[in-house]
Amino acid sequence: AQSVTQLGSHVSVSEGALVLLRCNYSSSVPPYLFWYVQYPNQGLQLLLKYTSAATLVKGINGFEAEFKKSETSFHLTKPSAHMSDAAEYFCAVSSSNDYKLSFGAGTTVTVRA
Amino acid sequence: NAGVTQTPKFRVLKTGQSMTLLCAQDMNHEYMYWYRQDPGMGLRLIHYSVGEGTTAKGEVPDGYNVSRLKKQNFLLGLESAAPSQTSVYFCASSSTGLHEQFFGPGTRLTVL
């Protein structure tokens, strides 16, 4: 079984500031990890994924995430927030022997001008 | 390619009514999923399918039924709607060998 914990249900940042969204997972087998973004009234869009290759993963829109096995973490960062980054972000995990995804509760990002 | 589409986009039901939500994908994906999204709870898996003619229960299957008669379609049914089923429903699909899922735009369902 696997599970995901996202620390902080709401994050507020200033435009141009660092965005840091935290995700910790539990999995009994090597995980596949994902970050999805959901803009208002839309479906989920894949930002990036970790599938056992490089531990630092680059995604769309300037986001990246680092897989740290020792910390069971997969935190999402963006060096400089833009107003268009305001959305809800979900961390998700699956395992090598299961295609089902387990999602975190989500983190809503607000960007202040 | 349209990707994953969902019908309808919005629906209001009265308690006890039934309805079917339709999901269609044009990517020839083997796997399809139905989720519900509620505030503060992320997405929870209702039912899923690993191929045409097969379905399985997810995390929150009670009160829902599904069918996958064609590879490209995955139907979610509510036989007797309850206010607790007020939610946003998302369909997703994925390909064999790839764990990333592609999502539809969602259906917002209100049960009065």
Question: Your description of this structure?
Answer:
The complex is a heterodimer of chains A (113) and B (112). Chain A is an all-beta fold. Helices cover 0% and strands 62% of the residues of chain A. Chain A has no helices and 11 strands. In chain A, strands 2, 4, 5, 9, 10 and 11 form a 6-stranded mixed beta sheet that branches. The relative contact order of chain B is 0.34. In chain B, strands 2, 4, 5, 6, 9, 10 and 11 form a 7-stranded mixed beta sheet that branches. A 4-stranded antiparallel beta sheet of chain B has the order 1-3-8-7, with no helix packed on it. Chain B is globular, with a radius of gyration of 13 Å. In chain B, strand 5 and strand 6 form a beta hairpin. At the A-B interface, strand 4, strand 5 and strand 10 of A face strand 5, strand 9 and strand 10 of B.
Number of helices, where a helix is a run of at least 4 consecutive DSSP H or I residues of chain B = 0
Average pLDDT of chain B works out at 95
Rg over alpha carbons of chain B: 13 Å
Strand content of chain A: over 45%
Number of strands of chain B: 11
How far is the N terminus from the C terminus of chain B?
Answer: 36 Å
What is the multimeric organization of the chains shown?
A: heterodimer
Instruction: List low-pLDDT spans of chain B.
Output: none
Largest sheet of chain A: 6 strands, mixed
SSE-based structural type of chain A: mainly beta
Order of helices and strands of chain A: EEEEEEEEEEE
